[in-house]
Amino acid sequence: MYFFCIFDKKSVILCQICAKMELKVIAYARNGHSDKFGIPRQSREESPIETRIVFEPEFAIPEALRGIEGFSHLWLIWGFSENNSKQHLISTKPASNKDLPPIGFSPTVRPPRLGGNTRMGVFATRSPFRPNPIGLSSVRLLRVEKNTLVVSGADLLDGTPIYDIKPYLSFSDSHADAQNGYADAHIDDRLHVEMPAGETKLTEQEKRDIAYILSQDPRPGYQDDPDRAYKLDYAGYTVTFTVDGKTAYVQIIETSK
Amino acid sequence: MYFFCIFDKKSVILCQICAKMELKVIAYARNGHSDKFGIPRQSREESPIETRIVFEPEFAIPEALRGIEGFSHLWLIWGFSENNSKQHLISTKPASNKDLPPIGFSPTVRPPRLGGNTRMGVFATRSPFRPNPIGLSSVRLLRVEKNTLVVSGADLLDGTPIYDIKPYLSFSDSHADAQNGYADAHIDDRLHVEMPAGETKLTEQEKRDIAYILSQDPRPGYQDDPDRAYKLDYAGYTVTFTVDGKTAYVQIIETSK
Fold first, then answer.
1. Are A157 and A36 in contact (CB under 8 A)?
2. Which residues 107-126 of B have a C-beta within 8 angstroms of A?
3. Count of structural domains within chain B
4. Predicted structure pTM score
5. CA–CA separation, A217 vs A243, rounded Å?
C-alpha cells in the first residue's frame, strides 16, 4: 500500500499516510456529443450511439487487445472532465494532506432523477461531483478496428479521457435483481420524438442517434414548459426542439457554427 | 478536459497534453485477508466474507451516505496496492509525458483462469498489471454502521485503498447475457472442503469464510500435486491444506505468528 507522495519535497520517499494514485490517460472517447447537454445520464444497452475509443500512442498496441473481441461488453473507467476540473487543481508547493482543502466536494448532491430538489449522499449517486471524479460505464463492444474499439451505449462527452478498459464478466458484474434505491423511480419516462417532415440533411444513423437522445428527455428535471425551445449540439448539428407532454418536437436542424 | 500538470514547473498552468488525474484515498477496506494468497479472483455474489469500508476522516460524513441503504449492491473502485507500486513511482523533476517510461506495463498478461500459460491482451483481462492499477468490484451492501459500510463479496486485501463508491444500477450495469470470452472456461471449478474433525478454534463465521476461500481453489492454476501443502493466512489464522482431485483437506489451523 505504498505510493509515491508528490507533496513531499524528497523525491523517492514512499509514504502511506498521504497515499494517492496518479492515473495516466490511456485513450480518449470520440463521438458526436460535442456538448454535455443531451448526454444520457447513464450508459444504456439500447443506445445506438457509437463511440470510438482511440488509444494514446503509448497504449495503441494491438496485443493489448488480444482476446477482447470475445467479450460482448466492456467497462470504461473515465474522467469527468468539464464539470469540475478546478476541484482537482493541485499545488506544487509542499503541503500535508490536511492542508489541502476538499474543494468542490459536497457530501450531498441533487440527482436529476429526483427532479433536482432532493439531496442524496454523493456515494449513493453517480453524480460527477464526487471526491474523485471517476466515471464508470458498461458499454457494448461493437467491433475492434486495428487499435480502436468501437462501442455503443457510452454516456460520454466527445474527448473524455479514459483511464482503464476491462472486460465485463457476467458472473461477477451482473446482478439483475439489484435494488436500485431511489433510482428506480421514473426509469421508463421516455419521450416520443417527432422529426420535421421531409428532413433530408441527416443520415439514417444520425437521425436514429438524435431521436434516441431526445427520447431520453435531456431537459433539466424541473422544467416543463411546452413553449420553451432547447438547443442540442450533436455530430456537427444544432437541433432545436420543444417538449409538450410526452412528445419532443424537433423544430429545426442546422449545421453547427 | 484540462488537468493540472504536475510535470510543469509553473504551478497553475493547465495543460491538456499530459492530462493526468490524481486520486485521493477516501477509505480503506478492512477484512481478514492479510495475505494476497486466497483472495477470490473476482468479487462473487455468494461470498460470505465481510469487508468493512472505513472512511478517511475527511470523508467520514454520515450525509455522504444518505440514501445508500436503498441499494442492494455497490461498486468499489480501488487500488491494486501490493503488486506493482513501483510501476507508479513518479519523479518530481520536470519531464514530458514521453520521457516517462511505461514501467511495468506489459501489453499482454497470463490470466490464471487459462492455467497461467496463455497470454491475453491486458485490456481483455482483470489483471492487476495494467497501465493504471485500478480495480473494480461489485459488492453486496449488508449494512451501514454509522460512517462505515459493511459489504460482502469483495475480492480485496485488508488495507486496500478505496477511491470511489457508487450505487449499482441494474438498468445500466447488469447484462446477464454478456459473453465472457475466454473467461467462461472453468467458471464452476469449485472444490469440496473437508475441515479437521473436532475443530473448535474457529467461530462459525470464520469456518464459513475459510471453507469458502478454499472452495475457490486458491492454488496457482498450473499446480496439481496432492502431496503439496499450502499455507493460507486469514483473520489471524494460518491454515495448512492440501488438494486431492476436487477436495481440499484442511490439515492444521494455527494462530498466525
1. yes
2. 107-108, 119-126
3. 2
4. 0.84
5. 9
Q: Supply the pLDDT for residue A186.
A: 57
Nearest CA in chain A to B105: A59
pLDDT at res. A117? 82
**Cβ contact B224:B189 at 8 Å:** no
A2-34 pLDDT, tens digit each: 333 333 332 222 333 345 788 999 999 999 999
User: Which residue matches cell numbers 463492444?
Assistant: A141
Residue B117 is assigned to a structural domain of this protein: no
ipTM of the complex: 0.84
- Do residue A167 and residue B124 have CB atoms under 8 angstroms apart? yes
A160: pLDDT strictly greater than 90: yes
> Which residues in chain B touch residue A11, judged by CB atoms under 8 angstroms apart?
91-93
> Is there a contact between A173 and B173 if contact means CB atoms under 8 Å apart?
yes
Q: Do B8 and A89 contact (CB within 8 A), yes or no?
A: no
Q: What is the residue range of A218's domain? A: 190-255
B212 sits in which H/E element: helix B204-215
Among residues A117, A148, A178, the one where a domain terminates is: A178
Q: Residue A50 domain-assigned?
A: yes
